[in-house]
Amino acid sequence: MSYEYNEAVDGPLIDHDRAAVVAQLRDRVPGLTILHDMEDLLPYECDGLSAYRTTPLLVALPDTVEQVERLLRYAHAERVPVVARGAGTGLSGGALPLEKGILLVMARFNRIVQIDAEASTARVQPGVRNLAISQAAAKYGLYYAPDPSSQIACTIGGNVAENAGGVHCLKYGLTVHNILRLEILTMEGERVTLGSNALDAPGFDLLALFTGSEGMLGIVTEVTVKLLTKPQSTRVLMASFGDVERAAAAVAEIIGAGIIPGGLEMMDNLAIRAAEDFIHAGYPVDAAAILLCEIDGAESDVQEDCEKVEALLRAAGSTDVRLARDEAERQQFWAGRKNAFPAVGRISPDYYCMDGTIPRRELPRVLAGIEQLSAEYGLRVANVFHAGDGNLHPLILFDANAGETERAEALGGAILELCVKVGGSITGEHGVGREKINQMCTQFNSDELTLFHSLKAAFDPKGLLNPGKNIPTLHRCAEFGSMHVHHGALPFPELERF
Asked: Which of 53, 201, 283, 342 is 20 to 30 A from 478 (CA-CA)?
């Protein structure tokens, strides 16, 4: 595939003998669990981006920080690359292993160290599931706000690596807005604390730099997260629309009125039908699009804002607006949205989940562009959006057995290029990983990429943490034909008309 690790482009890796590395690790890291038989390695070949697979040299499953520290010191001395992995739910190939490297699985670090209800914080290990934090905090009337669709399985360490968001990130922010402190280990095995338990820390904001760095700067060993008080009242409206552009325009109307919903999500007809068939959420299957708008806060404020939002939705052209009758129906509305990805998997042999961001005002234009590109490439696209903050998740439906993989990749790249063209970004919360490394060449120029590599080198001078991911070399950009390296020529000339 076009974004597989390419030693000619990304730099050569040393060939290490598997048996020798296993023997050396067992000697230097007592008690470390190591998987090295082929049948034990196969489950770790891929993450959520399952179309692409690589078998790691070996898999290490440490139980203690000391074991991670010793493993990193060994790998640094012997120049063995290390890729960190949590639950493997990532969707950009960020945790895909290297066949010449160690896959460091942090799943056993799954303890909630402390919940401080008075300070509204929780100290957790990186292998703790996102949802488990809110479950543990519930008895104090608290919860952890970021809620990616995979929250039942994804880990907080992975959320930090990808700066994950979720359906409520419009009002409550991404991971970076909801953490205070990180304990990390550098590639040399040095323990470092980023951030503090206070609202700010002296010096450069390395906490923000590290969040979203996709395992390229260090290994997370502990996270201190902020907890929020559960809102007094939460209501959800579902609005149906006869065309997608009207639904997109309604998003701007709501935000423009000064109302910031807890969540504002959009689904098109293909996604609606798939989710309804799977979850039976009560979605109108004849609608071209639906908006889910959640309002939370004090009871009186919620009631007033719901009335305002309903009026705005109807004025924007909604054919029907429904207010969830009770908490059970509210949860059901959200269940359909949060299960949209697996639902789409029921109607297509394969699907390719994209992730880009755009200015909200460009939603109608980009939706029209995606529809045109879908027709040109001959592949269906189901659209699921964090509409409130312009984070798009087009799901490209294809059949790998019919030879459609490369066409799906090309369509995905064209959609990302369209996002950049209208002033957006190639990712909102899924990261770059291997999937979008070529499109990085379009979004950033050579000076910016050189700066990224310099930051990487400050933490990992030998380039051993997750190499070949996230930041392309200028050599790769030249091969790809980025607009910055190749005299402004877009890799997808057909986008000029949008």
From this structure: 53
